[in-house]
Design goal:
Helix content is 43%, strand content 30%. The chain is an alpha/beta fold and 117 residues long. Strand 4 (76-79), helix 3 and strand 5 (100-101) form a beta-alpha-beta unit.
Length: 117
Amino acid sequence: MDCRFTKKNKTLIVHITGEIDHHTSAFLREKTDHALEQIGGKNIIFCFQEVTFMDSAGIGVMIGRYKKVQSLGGRIAIACAEEKITEIISLSGLGKLLPSFRTLEDAAAYTEGREEK
């Protein structure tokens, strides 16, 4: 798994490539928290366009970032997830906490408060 970060206003966009599992979840959590702190942001968008797999450890990372963002008064979203990842999100109940959007633009509109989930 690899990740890179971009910023849009007060939103951190996390572009993830590969698998989010018990081998990579700690790395993703630490890097995301550090990047959010560095930009002084309060919102996160996880871009799942190139995510090929996610297990319960990945779901745990997402829930942890949800709690962190909530404590900052921000919003969190998932963007560009493929069908099998969308199914994992739905079956796990994660979609009730983190809304999913087809595009980064739609997710950004939500995190910036321009659109309701």
